């Protein structure tokens, strides 16, 4: 699949030569053309299947750059902005997305303030001077760029295009980070939101700050969002696409009213698409329109996003599925593609920075497992969300910080984007496949068989997907990790095969005892390589006496030494 709609197509042509038709010279041109074409066809027939190309998206959420975390929060310069983009250049990343904000912005807008703008000291966080200083630092960085005539968004996207990447703006459709009246911090309150409480959902059931989310049932809210999107489309002429991020945050209507109001969001999408098409024609190039949405077609519709209708109307060029914040290591990509029922619209999947718990970063091995899972399930590419590299440089001085035992690295580093984007570069790399722990965010449950209640009367089963083909890329060792709610005696089968070989020391060596809550236990079992398969694998549990709750299931594939085959 050719992911870049603007990719050059090479044609063999016969130019209009001043010699008359049928001349000897023209005949020679034709003969050369036919011979060349025959050679090309022969090569095509005899060559192996060309390597599939994937779109690999890097989403810069803006705050990482504007806060300049990479350079120890020193005053931001255009050279720093360039460096942020340079970090992902010369990698597998094909597409650079720069976040523009939501109701706060990273540029001068007619529709709101720049993040951290305190209106010349008129706004603050009360007694929390540290918070005031933190937020204002973003604005001071903006002013530092502005005095040199630099627009953060424009500079980032131009730099990306200089490196041969696609340049997208990505807009968060209803970000709720700052819509929290319990903080008493007016510097964080967007004007439109603050002055129009009548447009809030006033419904606490969806999740964090959900009652203070703007309700898209109001035409004023939709008009406000359209005006912002239009401004950004018109402002940034170099863009190759616009991404609408519906996962930040996934609240658009009162709980239970999404489906009946979905037509309103479809009307908004039609207006955005019309503007995109208008500018595409004006600029003489196609501007792509993409969306990031929940994990199932049903969840999308429940939230007011009728993506099947959007496809039917030709409103979107590609779709990315993802979660709100906490990462899901086993996104149901194949299921979503099947549910969607479209063979024309590419589907991508998100790899988030979040772990099982907030700010518990996934490890390198887990990132590889997620990438392999996504690509092996038929996704057309990967969308890296919130992959902050600031800590890698500012905290760890560009070094791969290892957990106790020296096998595990949890620092998000640019090293990973040299291998996550292709099955070929993921092959023979150490990785960990994981099940989601089944958390629910904003009313959407991460699809999972966990938590799994295990009883003594029968086997309880969990299905875990493995992207590797162990018959071809034979791992040196396969380890199953199980976390339970309490210490218990249980019987274990993998794909019908009894498993008894435990290695307790592997729990700490592979960092699987991290974050154990009171009473929880972690187990490690060595699996025969021949017991696992590419695709879904059944892990069955039987409690010996009382019931227990299985909370995590992970399978590590070790191909060799971590220094040569990658840290877990």
Explained architecture:
This protein folds into 3 domains: 50 residues, no CATH class; 267 residues, TIM Barrel, CATH 3.20.20; 122 residues, Sandwich (Jelly Rolls). It is 29% helix and 19% strand. It contains 16 helices and 19 strands. The radius of gyration is 26 Å and the shape is globular.
Pick out the low-confidence regions: 4-48
Strand content: 15-25%
Mean pLDDT: 90
Question: CATH topology of the largest domain, what is it called?
Answer: TIM Barrel
Radius of gyration: 26 Å
**What structural category arises from helix and sheet content?**
alpha/beta
The name of the CATH architecture of the largest domain is: Alpha-Beta Barrel
Spatial strand sequence of the major β-sheet = 1-2-3-4-5-6-7-8
**Total E-strand runs:** 19
The total domain count is 3
Spell out the blueprint of helices and strands:
Layout: H1 24-46, E1 55-60, H2 63-66, H3 78-86, E2 95-101, H4 129-146, H5 152-162, E3 166-172, H6 191-195, H7 219-235, E4 241-245, H8 258-283, E5 288-293, H9 297-302, H10 307-312, E6 318-321, H11 333-340, E7 347-352, H12 364-376, E8 381-385, H13 390-394, H14 423-426, E9 431-434, E10 440-441, E11 444-445, E12 452-454, E13 460-466, E14 477-484, E15 490-494, E16 497-498, H15 506-509, E17 521-527, E18 535-543, E19 548-558, H16 562-565
Parallel strand pairs: 1-2, 1-8, 2-3, 3-4, 4-5, 5-6, 6-7, 7-8
Antiparallel strand pairs: 9-19, 10-11, 12-19, 13-18, 14-17, 14-19, 15-16, 15-18
């Amino acid at each position: 699949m050719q992911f870049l709609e603007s990719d050059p197509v090479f044609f063999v042509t016969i130019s209009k030569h001043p010699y008359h038709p049928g001349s000897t010279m023209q005949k020679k041109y034709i003969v050369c053309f036919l011979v060349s074409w025959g050679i090309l066809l022969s090569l095509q027939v005899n060559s192996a299947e060309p390597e599939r190309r994937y779109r690999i998206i890097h989403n810069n959420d803006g705050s990482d750059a504007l806060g300049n975390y990479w350079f120890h929060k020193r005053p931001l310069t255009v050279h720093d902005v360039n460096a942020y983009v340079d970090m992902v250049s010369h990698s597998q990343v094909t597409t650079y997305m720069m976040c523009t904000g939501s109701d706060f912005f990273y540029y001068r807008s007619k529709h709101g303030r720049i993040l951290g703008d305190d209106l010349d000291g008129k706004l603050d966080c009360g007694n929390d001077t540290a918070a005031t200083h933190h937020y204002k630092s973003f604005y001071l960085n903006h002013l530092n760029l502005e005095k040199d005539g630099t627009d953060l968004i424009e500079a980032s996207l131009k730099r990306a295009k200089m490196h041969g990447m696609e340049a997208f703006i990505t807009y968060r459709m209803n970000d709720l980070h700052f819509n929290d009246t319990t903080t008493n911090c007016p510097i964080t309150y967007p004007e439109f939101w603050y002055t129009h409480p009548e447009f809030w959902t006033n419904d606490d059931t969806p999740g964090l700050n959900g009652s203070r989310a703007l309700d898209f049932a109001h035409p004023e809210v939709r008009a406000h969002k359209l005006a912002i999107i239009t401004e950004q489309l018109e402002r940034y002429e170099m863009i190759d696409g616009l991404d609408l991020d519906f996962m930040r945050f996934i609240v658009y209507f009162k709980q239970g009213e999404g489906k009946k109001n979905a037509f309103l969001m479809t009307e908004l999408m039609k207006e955005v698409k019309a503007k995109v098409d208008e500018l595409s024609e004006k600029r003489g190039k196609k501007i792509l329109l993409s969306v990031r949405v929940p994990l199932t077609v049903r969840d999308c519709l429940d939230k007011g996003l009728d993506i099947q209708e959007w496809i039917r109307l030709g409103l979107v060029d590609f779709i990315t599925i993802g979660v709100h914040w906490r990462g899901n290591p086993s996104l149901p990509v194949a299921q979503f593609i099947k549910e969607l029922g479209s063979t024309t619209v590419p589907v991508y999947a998100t790899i988030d920075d979040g772990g099982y718990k907030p700010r518990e970063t996934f490890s390198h091995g887990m990132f590889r497992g997620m990438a392999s899972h996504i690509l092996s399930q038929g996704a057309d590419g990967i969308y890296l969300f919130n992959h902050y590299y600031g800590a890698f440089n500012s905290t760890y001085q560009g070094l791969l910080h290892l957990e106790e035992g020296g096998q595990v690295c949890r620092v998000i580093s640019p090293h990973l984007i040299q291998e996550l984007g292709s099955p070929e570069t993921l092959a023979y790399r150490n990785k960990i496949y994981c099940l989601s722990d089944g958390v629910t965010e904003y009313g959407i449950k991460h699809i999972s068989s966990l938590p799994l209640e295990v009883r003594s009367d029968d086997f309880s089963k969990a299905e875990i997907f493995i992207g590797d083909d162990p018959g071809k890329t034979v791992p040196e060792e396969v380890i199953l990790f199980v976390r339970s709610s309490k210490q218990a005696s249980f019987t274990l089968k993998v794909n019908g095969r009894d498993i008894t070989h435990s290695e307790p020391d592997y729990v700490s060596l592979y960092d699987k005892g991290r974050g154990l809550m009171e009473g929880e236990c972690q187990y490690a079992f060595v699996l025969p390589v021949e017991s696992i398969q590419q695709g879904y694998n059944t892990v069955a549990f039987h409690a010996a006496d009382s019931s227990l709750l299985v909370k995590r299931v992970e399978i590590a594939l070790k191909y060799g030494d971590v220094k040569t085959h990658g840290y877990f």
